[in-house]
Amino acid sequence: MNQNQYNLISVCFFTLVGLLHLMRIVNEWSLIIGNWDIPREVSMIAVLILGTMSVSGFRILLKK
């Protein structure tokens, strides 16, 4: 696996997970781990971080 393939897989993963967090917010899905109900604010932060990572990754892929 070369660097471009690794970057593409990483970008796809970050995008997919970010979209799932966005769907959780929009559809008001609950996320429970153990006895802890994860607040939606955590997903909002995750969307921002993963969105930034996805955009940065796409820019890196397009430069090459």
Concise structural overview:
The protein is mainly alpha-helical and 64 residues long. It contains 2 helices and 2 strands; from the N terminus they run H-E-E-H.
Characterise the protein shown here.
The chain has helices spanning 3-27, 40-63, and strands at residues 32-33, 36-37. The protein is mainly alpha-helical and 64 residues long. The protein has one domain (3-55). Strands 1-2 form a two-stranded antiparallel sheet. The longest helix is centred in the N-terminal third of the chain and has 25 residues, at 3-27. It is elongated and about 45 Å long. The two termini are 16 Å apart. The relative contact order is 0.18. The mean pLDDT is 94.
Distance between the termini: 16 Å
Order of helices and strands: HEEH
Rounded radius of gyration (Å): 14 Å
Biggest sheet, spatial arrangement of strands: 1-2
pLDDT averaged residue by residue: 94
Shape: elongated
Structural class: mainly alpha
- The total strand number stands at 2
Task: Kindly state the percentage of residues in helix.
Answer: over 70%
Number of helices: 2
Classify the beta-strand content into a percent band: 5-15%
The total domain count is: 1
In this structure, how is the largest beta sheet organized? 2 strands, antiparallel
Low-pLDDT stretches are none
